[in-house]
Amino acid sequence: MKINVTRTSLPPFEDYCEEIRKLWDSHILTNMGVEHDALRDALQQYLGVPHVVLFTNGHLALEAALRTLGLPQGGEVITTPLTFVSTTNALVRCGLTPVFCDVCPEDGTMDAAKIEPLINERTVAILPVHVYGHVCDVDAIGAVAKRHGLKVLYDAAHAFGVRYRGVPVAQLGEAVMLSFHATKVFSTIEGGAVCCSDAALARRLADERNYGIRDEETCVAAGGNAKMSEFQAAMGLCNLRLLEGELARRKALDAQYRALLAGVPGLQMLLPRPGVTPNYAYFPVLFEGEGVRDRVKEALAAEGIGSRKYFWPLTSAVEAYKGCPWADPSATPVAARMAAQVLTLPLSADLEPEQVERICALVRQALATSA
Ligand SMILES: *Cc1c(COP(=O)(O)O)cnc(C)c1O
Question: Across residues 339-345, what is the average pLDDT?
Fold first, then answer.
């Protein structure tokens, strides 16, 4: 049986049918109906944030946040290249210039000590990524931002359900973007959100999401359309009820991986910083170099096991940005090395312990034969 790197969890079919039954009565399928409002309220409660503005996907949520934070066009935003291209594309699509900061070798998050030298008069914001659900050094990043009067927007697409010193990541930052894509820990099929505590920012985000329309006769901003539909919200409500169980199963599988791969020569596991309560979104491991990493990937693929090189290539090395002066992978040597070494092994809530055993045996075997 084929194993993919992620597998979307689904609620029982009957639960979803029950949840969407009311839509057949109301015929209201989108435009912030009852399901949308119920999911928003449930997430505000679960995440402990005053405002959760729901979007049709995480990428448009990120773009909306960039557009509504009041960042001057053409400004530079300090971010990281060890991420999904969405993070970098969002900046470029919003007329901002990415400036890549290197990452910490322990967990892949932005190295806060390397931010300050990148700041100049054109710098307007910092966009760090809680990559793999590993929480950034939010205190140090917040302190640098404060010293220089910069806004901080977090890409927390990987970090739904993650806490740092007991505080949900949604509360850490001026604006925090979440993704509810089917491949993420919590899914609304496609979906996302921006979390914030500023009511005026939440209002601008809502305008950005729905054409700037406040009522039938009032349009206050050149907004687009990025609304979450009732069907997406209904899926979210069903999945939210299952979240605790999902996280517990992921935690057990993560522990099993760590036990079976501990001490394997030529393999390093990443760990979030102390104080992080993880969501076990991914299981990234590092090999000694690109050649052995690629051989392990091929050995797994030959047995029907999908793994991914998250995140290779760096977003500063993709074809789209070839020739851009800001896109230079050699400017972030730690990230470049990690991208060449990393392989993300399968992890999803319904993976069987026997499958983890088999994957680990194959990894060990591939390492032994390519030594
Ligand atoms: C998934 C993801 C996004 C985009 O979210 P979508 O909901 O897929 O649009 C952005 N950034 C990162 C790091 C992601 O992994």
Answer: 98
pLDDT in tens, 104-144: 999 999 999 999 999 999 999 999 999 999 999 999 999 99
Residues 343 and 293: beta-carbon distance below 8 Å: yes
Joined together, the tokens standing for residue 208 give: 């950005």
Contacts for 240-245: CB closer than 8 Å, 24+ residues apart:
240/39, 240/42, 240/43, 240/46, 240/186, 241/11, 241/15, 242/9, 242/11, 243/161, 243/186, 245/349
In sequence order, the β-bridge partners of residue 196 are 51
Type of residue at 276: V
Calpha distance 184→178 (Å, rounded): 10
Alpha-carbon span 179 to 362, nearest angstrom: 32
For ligand 1, is residue 64 a contact (CB within 6 Å)?
no
C-alpha 366/C-alpha 47 separation (Å) is 41
Distance between CA atoms of residues 5 and 351, nearest Å: 10
Ligand 1 pocket test: pick from 56, 59, 308 the residue with the most ligand atoms within 8 Å of its Cβ.
59
Residue 84's contacts (CB-CB under 8 Å, 6 or more residues apart) are 157, 310, 311, 315
